[in-house]
Amino acid sequence: MSNDSLTAQNENFSEWYNQIIQKAELADYAPVRGCMVVRPYGWALWENIQKALDARFKATGHQNAAFPLFIPMSFLEKEKEHVEGFSPELAVVTHGGGQELEEPLVVRPTSETIIGYMYSKWIKSYRDLPVLINQWANVVRWEMRTRLFLRTLEFYWQEGHTAHATAAEAEEETLRMLHIYEDFAVNEAAIPVITGMKSETEKFAGAVHSYTIEAMMGDTKALQSGTSHNLGQNFAKAFDIQYLDTQNQLQYCWTTSWGLSTRFVGAIIMTHGDDQGLILPPRLAPIQVVIVPIFRNEDEQQKVMEYAEKVKNALSAFRITLDDRFEQTPGYKFNDWEMRGVPLRIEIGPRDVANDKVVIARRDIPGKAGKSFVEFNALPQTVQQLLDELHLSMLQKATDFRDEHIINAASYDELKEAVQNGWAYSHWCESKACEAKIKEDTKATIRCIPLSQEHTKGTCVVCGKATNTKAYFAKAY
Ligand SMILES: [Zn+2]
């Protein structure tokens, strides 16, 4: 494998994205159109994403469980908006065991309905609340236009489903999980995100309202990277999720759902990658440090390999690999690990062994500027320090890039211009008509109405009506 044929980002970002996934061996195309095979390196990245999120879910009182892949068709029909939203994407099983089924089964596109059905059996009194359950699962949505990780027929995710006694508690939970996604994106993936509410048009089918974390990719398009939905009593009423309150009165529950998927791998690729390949955030990288030994003859080989093993042992607290492929040159290996986005590379040659020092190269800073000599005894502290520095500078770089490409567009012409190569932040009257016009004219959609905004007085960029709400508009994946 080599990177000499990797298309440059500014030449064709979409082609760059497709190639990098293949070359870094993250995923491959499956024989069924639109399906994805996640390869071991990609899955290891997803596993680290899972670990980081799962720890946060558990720390906030959630438990994991597993619900079935098949859902009776009639369940989806119980919530009107939900079935309308998902019908075009459903995979439906009509036969099983060689016989036609009495009722068709849907392969879950999401699990609000079946989990709601189970909650109606489990929840009896206010003492049973809140119910805080998450599941790690695969889901199927029959998409017509697919991209590896970003949009595939089958994808992997977590979906949290909670039930509460009051509207206020459900809203609190919805926001709590939104902020957990934000914290994860920033502090694990080094991806800056904007948190906000989805417009009525863009919200989840069946939700009262949806919150989102939105990230800007390297081509300035937006990627919805995680969502948290306040479902109000919509699903509780559809599935009869009721409880007896302290006054012995029957009440409907208030429910939420929230999810983050393998799409996030796409966010990592497109936020941080460059023309040499991936750059993985150190806290999620399957391999944080790779050791590349350099030698010319057998005598050198023995000394260098011995020392490399010693360095590897000294750094056993990190996810570290010693590249002992003797058939490949160091130059080939450098390119290979750069393509795979390993944050730190340790180079060890005979002179380094003699000096009891190694060279450490940062993936995010090319050439000499990113290299430093480190004494053996200082290795663990220095590697930790470098990984933390890498994380912070990746986050800073992505934040600067994003902020440079967000334009405060005060007129419709400015908005149209801004969304050609960035996002527009503009006053909007909150009408569906103005939102639809922007989408029709520019292909940009409302990414979110940010939670933190000053609500300054202004006028809708489309219709001129007075409003104090601003929203982000962008083309999106
Ligand atoms: Zn308007």
UniProtKB/TrEMBL annotation:
Localization annotation: Cytoplasm
GO cellular component terms, semicolon-separated: aminoacyl-tRNA synthetase multienzyme complex; cytoplasm
Keywords: Aminoacyl-tRNA synthetase, ATP-binding, Cytoplasm, Ligase, Nucleotide-binding, Protein biosynthesis
SMART domains linked: ProRS-C_1
Domain Aminoacyl-transfer RNA synthetases class-II family profile: start-end pairs: 33-281
GO process terms (BP): prolyl-tRNA aminoacylation
SUPFAM superfamilies xrefs: C-terminal domain of ProRS, Class II aaRS ABD-related, Class II aaRS and biotin synthetases
Molecular-function annotations in GO: ATP binding; proline-tRNA ligase activity
InterPro entries linked to this entry: aa-tRNA-synt_IIb, aa-tRNA-synth_II, aa-tRNA-synth_II/BPL/LPL, Anticodon-bd, Anticodon-bd_dom_sf, Pro-tRNA-ligase_IIa, Pro-tRNA-ligase_IIa_arc-type, Pro-tRNA_ligase_II_C
Pfam families per UniProt: HGTP_anticodon (PF03129), ProRS-C_1 (PF09180), tRNA-synt_2b (PF00587)
EC number: 6.1.1.15
Reactions accelerated catalytically: tRNA(Pro) + L-proline + ATP = L-prolyl-tRNA(Pro) + AMP + diphosphate
Binding partners and assembly: Homodimer.
Matches recorded under HAMAP family: Pro_tRNA_synth_type3
Domain text: Consists of three domains: the N-terminal catalytic domain, the anticodon-binding domain and the C-terminal extension.
Family: Belongs to the class-II aminoacyl-tRNA synthetase family. ProS type 3 subfamily.
Described function: Catalyzes the attachment of proline to tRNA(Pro) in a two-step reaction: proline is first activated by ATP to form Pro-AMP and then transferred to the acceptor end of tRNA(Pro).
Protein name: Proline--tRNA ligase
Originating species: Anaerolinea thermophila
Phylogenetic classification of the source organism: Bacteria, Bacillati, Chloroflexota, Anaerolineae, Anaerolineales
